[in-house]
């Protein structure tokens, strides 16, 4: 018998990546379709997605390639980048990521596929890691309450400006910024200030507060320590003067410098901000990096962003959780002063672990080494007749070379070193952890100084430090045992493993969070992120050195524009909240350019995400709320009434599509037309884009602008609560108003656009290869199929659960979009079992809970995504059905309302070894019916249910003394 020949062309194709990304195979899809009542994915699409918005043409994207092919393309792009040794500084520095942290945190799915720790019982590992980060920031800045990270240093400074305005004594007045602050920080602060009516005054504060500012009133002051020029100044007198005027003072500080310098808190500052990038996080062409903010205790409850605190569980044991967990914009909406709804958790974990691994002595040694190189650099320049501008500095030297600055920078570049061209007469040179003797020699040669590496030891012997005596740090920091215990790699490896084991992430099982799209973050997509050709580039390196990066960025912009139907995309916003702000600022600028500055009303449905309202106010708009109908759709009659009432001042309608309730609204095109007829613009929030890719394009069915969440639809992982990327996509008339950047004009539209919303020109560029790879791997057909399966999965789950729980909203034919809301309120009313009880009980079944009480209190929003296979979907459905049976046992009186598996969930292993006073068995507690397959790999929560109210009343936000644990 002759063996059947398979053509080489077929063998060369391999398995399409889409088959790896999409969980259910063809056979399972057929089973799911039959359960929902359809014969094919196209039939389901035709029934679920309104015909008025469906796209009729295939996306114009390159044909999908296999994993090896895409990696080869990325290698070719990476090879087009030239990585020189960066001595540019400006808040971005070379650093050495300890390999144990690189491999076991940054490249470990147990850390990068986790979600925001809103379910703290199954997030104890990363919460402890964030508490370490907060302790590092609080100790080094000398201010007792630090947050769990912000998006970058520049936006942290802008948040500090808003906080100063909110809590300060001076109403009105100016925000005073020292001229030696980082230029990108000044630019972002100005972008954020102008729409809200804040006057920013930039001045040299070396001689104190200018008379002009004092006369106008000063509500806040921002200084840089050390300054962008490298200068280290004693700000005590300035801070005292500012306090005398009633101002709140913010110090933007360098964490590494603070291991040697007096802390901002001791100088008298009220707020400290900065970046933790140089604590082991690669530059990545600008991000992502964990910004930070710490404050005096007085302002602890006004701190923007997330705050990890220490509470206690049901057994009285210490347990970590997000303190003040309900985010500010959800409580205060249009009255919020911040739209921040995310953090940079993965990067904060890395920075915190860098401090854990090195400890205070190791960090100080790195700082002293860095400073010595800077001091020797300056001494060698002076010996060669080059003037050094400042006598006191930490790591950055500004040299004066009249008329020769460009020549010096070019010469250094030829020698493999990038310096900073400050102006025609000055060159900035920054040293860091990676600086060596060879770099000093190259820099001296570029200046025309006869430097010689073999003479450095002699130069060292006669060169004093350049840190001012009165600013040398005298207090201890990082005294907690965690910063002294893990010096060997073995100990560190086990610590990281122990923390990861305390968490639940996508590497364990399904995270069915509505509105958050927790799907596969493929290893092939993640791999290029840590390649040095991408990771080691400074964001302000000359563009000719970033040719491959720029090509990747342009291709991703073009492909995202094609997917969404828009004309232009900016990748600068480094979170969805910043994308919202950038989009609304573009709308505002468009109306002003058209001579209609009075268009300031933003219509927002009452069901919208809270960041929408907060972003609108930050963009200088007035929020008018539109009612939501009983079916979850925007109330069309109320919308038309609001349009008519505000026709002359209507700026924009913000609407999420599919709706926040998980439904394809039928009249979205008519809604867009009504807004346009009144002269307004339409902003479609891209949070639910995973239901549209390949099926419908917002830019073609009436929207003018959207932000996209690359950390949802386009596979950048959530990282335990960040990083995120929130590009803004616009139609052509808004394109001139996209964000620009003063240090890199090529990152913005011709003419400059609006100001930057992020510190780096292309935001979190370091993780853009992930989304580029995803689109390249999937192609047009794969992307469309992924969306169809996501919609199928949501409808399958809804149909399976509908006999047991009401599905709150549905469109025509009883269909939902890519997520569904199940209503627990009738059960709570009948039995007393709360939504919290159901969420915590799911932990015993081996699941992360769906989104709780959003957008409707007392409900669960479930989004299964396209990546979960049928076995996992069924496991989840069976767990929910089993929980319903348990609720019935409570309702019937078989189990008491206050002592049952739901009220006591989750159950820990430690409970099994003690007395068992409950009316249900240990077996029912930890191996409930429907969860038998967990026996081989059960997830055991490390703590019992956490008392959130106790943690909020007793705010502890840094590593507690060991004695507290003993108590």
From TrEMBL:
Sequence ranges assigned to domain Glycine dehydrogenase C-terminal in this UniProt record: 786-907
Reaction catalysis annotation: N(6)-[(R)-lipoyl]-L-lysyl-[glycine-cleavage complex H protein] + glycine + H(+) = N(6)-[(R)-S(8)-aminomethyldihydrolipoyl]-L-lysyl-[glycine-cleavage complex H protein] + CO2
EC number: 1.4.4.2
Main EC class the enzyme belongs to: oxidoreductase
Residues recorded with modification N6-(pyridoxal phosphate)lysine: 712
Keyword Oxidoreductase: yes
Keywords, sorted A to Z: Oxidoreductase, Pyridoxal phosphate
Family statement: Belongs to the GcvP family.
Role: The glycine cleavage system catalyzes the degradation of glycine. The P protein binds the alpha-amino group of glycine through its pyridoxal phosphate cofactor; CO(2) is released and the remaining methylamine moiety is then transferred to the lipoamide cofactor of the H protein.
Subunit structure: The glycine cleavage system is composed of four proteins: P, T, L and H.
Protein name, entry field: Glycine dehydrogenase (decarboxylating)
Organism (species): Streptomyces johnsoniae
């Amino acid at each position: 018998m002759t063996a059947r020949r398979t053509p080489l062309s077929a063998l060369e194709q391999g398995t399409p990546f889409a088959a790896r990304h999409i969980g259910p195979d063809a056979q399972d899809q057929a089973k799911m379709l039959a359960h929902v009542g359809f014969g094919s994915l196209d039939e389901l699409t035709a029934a679920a997605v309104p015909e008025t918005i469906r796209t009729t043409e295939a996306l114009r994207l390159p044909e999908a390639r296999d994993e090896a092919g895409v990696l080869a393309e990325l290698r070719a792009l990476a090879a087009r980048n030239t990585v020189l040794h960066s001595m540019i500084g400006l808040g971005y520095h070379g650093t050495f990521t300890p390999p144990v942290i690189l491999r076991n945190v940054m490249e470990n799915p147990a850390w990068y596929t986790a979600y925001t720790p809103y379910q703290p019982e199954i997030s104890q590992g990363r919460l402890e890691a964030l508490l370490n980060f907060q302790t590092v920031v609080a100790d080094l800045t000398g201010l007792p309450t630090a947050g769990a990270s912000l998006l970058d240093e520049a936006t942290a400074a802008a948040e500090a400006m808003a906080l100063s305005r909110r809590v300060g004594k001076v109403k009105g007045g100016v925000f005073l910024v020292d001229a030696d602050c980082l230029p990108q920080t000044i630019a972002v602060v100005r972008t954020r200030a102008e729409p809200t009516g804040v006057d920013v005054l930039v001045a040299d504060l070396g001689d104190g507060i200018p008379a002009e500012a004092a006369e106008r009133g000063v509500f806040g002051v921002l200084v840089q320590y050390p300054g962008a020029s490298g200068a280290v100044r004693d700000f005590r007198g300035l801070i005292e003067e500012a306090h005398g005027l009633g101002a709140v003072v913010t110090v933007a500080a360098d964490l590494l410098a603070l291991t040697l310098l007096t802390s901002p808190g001791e100088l008298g500052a009220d707020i400290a901000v900065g970046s933790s990038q140089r604590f082991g996080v690669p530059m990545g062409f600008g991000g992502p990096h964990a910004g930070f903010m710490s404050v005096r205790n007085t302002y602890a409850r006004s701190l923007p962003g997330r705050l990890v605190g220490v509470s206690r569980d049901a057994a009285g044991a210490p347990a970590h959780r997000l303190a003040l967990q309900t985010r500010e914009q959800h409580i205060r909406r249009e009255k919020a002063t911040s739209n921040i709804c995310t953090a940079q958790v993965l990067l904060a974990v890395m920075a915190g672990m860098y401090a854990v691994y090195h400890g205070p002595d190791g960090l100080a040694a790195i700082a002293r080494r860095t400073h010595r190189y800077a001091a020797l650099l300056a001494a060698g320049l002076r010996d060669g007749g080059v003037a050094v501008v400042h006598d006191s500095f930490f790591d950055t030297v500004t040299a004066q070379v009249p008329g020769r600055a460009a020549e010096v920078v070019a010469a250094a570049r030829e020698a493999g070193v990038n310096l900073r061209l400050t102006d025609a007469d000055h060159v900035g040179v920054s040293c860091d952890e990676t600086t060596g003797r060879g770099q000093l020699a190259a820099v001296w040669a570029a200046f025309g100084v006869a430097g010689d590496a073999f003479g450095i030891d002699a130069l060292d012997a006669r060169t004093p430090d350049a840190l001012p005596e009165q600013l040398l740090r005298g207090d201890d920091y990082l005294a907690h045992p965690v910063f002294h215990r893990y010096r060997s790699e073995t100990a560190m490896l086990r610590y990281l493993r122990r923390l990861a084991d305390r968490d639940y992430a996508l590497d364990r099982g399904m995270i069915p969070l509505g509105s958050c799209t927790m799907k596969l973050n493929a290893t092939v997509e993640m791999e290029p992120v840590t390649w040095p050709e991408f990771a080691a580039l400074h964001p302000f390196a000359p563009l000719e050195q970033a040719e491959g990066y720029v090509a990747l960025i342009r291709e991703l912009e073009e492909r995202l524009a094609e997917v969404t139907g828009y004309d232009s995309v900016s990748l600068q916003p480094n979170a969805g909240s910043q994308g919202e702000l950038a989009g609304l600022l573009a709308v505002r600028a468009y109306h002003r350019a058209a001579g209609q500055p009075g268009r300031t009303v933003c219509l927002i449905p009452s069901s919208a995400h809270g960041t929408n309202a907060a972003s609108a106010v930050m963009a200088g708009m007035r929020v008018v709320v539109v009612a939501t109908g009983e079916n979850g759709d925007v109330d069309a009659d109320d919308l038309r009434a609001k349009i008519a009432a505000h026709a002359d001042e209507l700026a924009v309608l913000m609407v999420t599509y599919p709706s926040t309730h998980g439904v394809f609204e039928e009249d979205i095109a008519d809604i867009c037309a009504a807004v346009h007829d009144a002269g307004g613009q339409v902003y479609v929030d891209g949070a639910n884009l995973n239901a549209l890719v390949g099926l419908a394009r917002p830019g073609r069915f009436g929207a003018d602008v959207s932000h996209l969440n690359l950390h949802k639809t386009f596979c950048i992982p959530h990282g335990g609560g960040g990083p995120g990327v929130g590009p803004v996509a616009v139609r052509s008339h808004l394109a001139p108003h996209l964000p620009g950047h003063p240090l890199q004009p090529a990152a913005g539209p011709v003419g400059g656009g609006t100001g930057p919303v992020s510190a780096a020109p292309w935001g979190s560029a370091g993780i853009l290869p992930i989304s580029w790879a995803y689109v390249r791997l999937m192609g047009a057909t794969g992307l469309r199929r992924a969306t169809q399966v996501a919609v199928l999965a949501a409808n399958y789950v809804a149909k399976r659960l509908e006999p047991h729980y009401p599905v709150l909203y549905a469109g025509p034919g009883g269909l939902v979009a890519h997520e569904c809301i199940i209503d627990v309120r009738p059960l709570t009313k009948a039995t007393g079992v709360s939504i919290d009880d159901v969420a915590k009980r799911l932990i015993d079944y081996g699941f992360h809970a769906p989104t709780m009480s959003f957008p409707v209190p007392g409900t669960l929003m479930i989004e299964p995504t396209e990546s979960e296979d049928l076995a996992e979907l069924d496991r989840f459905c069976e767990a929910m059905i089993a929980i319903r049976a348990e609720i019935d046992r409570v309702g019937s009186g078989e189990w008491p309302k206050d002592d049952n598996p739901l009220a006591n969930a989750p159950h820990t292993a430690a409970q099994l070894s003690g007395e068992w006073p409950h009316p249900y068995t240990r077996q029912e507690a930890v191996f409930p019916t429907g969860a038998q397959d967990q026996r081989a790999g059960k997830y055991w929560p490390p703590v019992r249910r956490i008392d959130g109210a106790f943690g909020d009343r007793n705010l502890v936000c840094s590593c507690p003394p060991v004695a507290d644990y003993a108590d």
